């Protein structure tokens, strides 16, 4: 995983429009069945090479909705985010 959308998601769609690699899907396509948007870990690049910070979190109107998560099979990730930030699910934008 790279970033995670929490259950505070209001399903507004702002994050989907901003993702440069189309890693985010809406609640209808969420493989977990939850009624929130979902980030495909194997696609998310944390906007490395695209933006200074994850554009989904910048666009999201819900404070703390998008958080850092463990690095999984994602092709790129930010080296400046600590394991502690990821394990504690620190918000990407505060």
Automatic annotation (TrEMBL):
Q: What is this protein called?
A: Ferredoxin
Source species, please?
hydrothermal vent metagenome
Q: Which InterPro entries match?
A: 4Fe4S_Fe-S-bd, 4Fe4S_Fe_S_CS
**Residue stretches making up the 4Fe-4S ferredoxin-type domain:** 1-29, 35-71
UniProt-listed Pfam families:
Fer4_7
């Amino acid at each position: 995983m790279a970033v995670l959308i929490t259950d505070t998601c209001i399903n507004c769609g702002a994050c989907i429009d901003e993702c440069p690699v189309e890693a985010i899907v809406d609640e209808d396509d969420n493989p977990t069945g939850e009624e929130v948007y979902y980030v495909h870990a194997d696609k998310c690049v944390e906007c490395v090479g695209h933006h200074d910070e994850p554009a989904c979190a910048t666009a999201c109107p819900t404070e703390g909705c998008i958080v850092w998560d463990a690095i999984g099979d994602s092709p790129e990730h930010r080296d400046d985010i600590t394991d502690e930030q990821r394990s504690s699910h620190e918000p990407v934008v505060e």
